[in-house]
Amino acid sequence: MSGLEIERKFLVKKGDAYKGAAFSCSHIQQGYIPAEGATVRIRIRDEKGYLTIKSHSTNGGLSRYEFEKEISLDEATHLMALCRGGVVDKHRWLVKSGSHTFEVDEFHGANAGLVVAEVELGSEDESFEKPDFIGPEVTGDVHFRNSHLLSDPFCNWRQLVPEAYQGPDQ
């Protein structure tokens, strides 16, 4: 897949409502290879590997170019060794809402207690139906970028998030 990625990101209310609404769940581990001018991500999702390259956003994190290619699990495992700063560990829950699918990420390790949801859109002004568990929008807030969570994990700034949107520590 490649092309323009348009997505909005939100905090998720405390509790398991998103889990009950989900039609799918997968385990994701991802790391980042240092690069100038782009984000290079290696991801292992269940038993599949992916290489993703994303440009930097010019409009506050709402849209950017994305290239993603499935690679072998062996290739992904070897490329993970080139990643710097550790690995983001999370479970992703897929929740249908209207004609959209929300990807709800429940983070683990130093990011435990953080749960965010993203929805991909066809245009920047496309309307969508929010599930009840969706909270305030955090699109463009650097704290909530997966690549940032490696260098400055949620445990360091948890107090900046309203208590109603802090899941339990693990």
From TrEMBL:
Gene3D superfamilies listed in its UniProt record: Hypothetical Protein Pfu-838710-001
Pfam families given in the database record: CYTH
Coiled coil regions, renumbered to chain: none
InterPro entries: CYTH-like_dom_sf, CYTH_domain, NeuTTM/CthTTM-like
Boundaries of every CYTH domain copy: 3-152
Protein name: CYTH domain-containing protein
Species annotation: Hallella faecis
Organism placement in taxonomy: Bacteria, Pseudomonadati, Bacteroidota, Bacteroidia, Bacteroidales
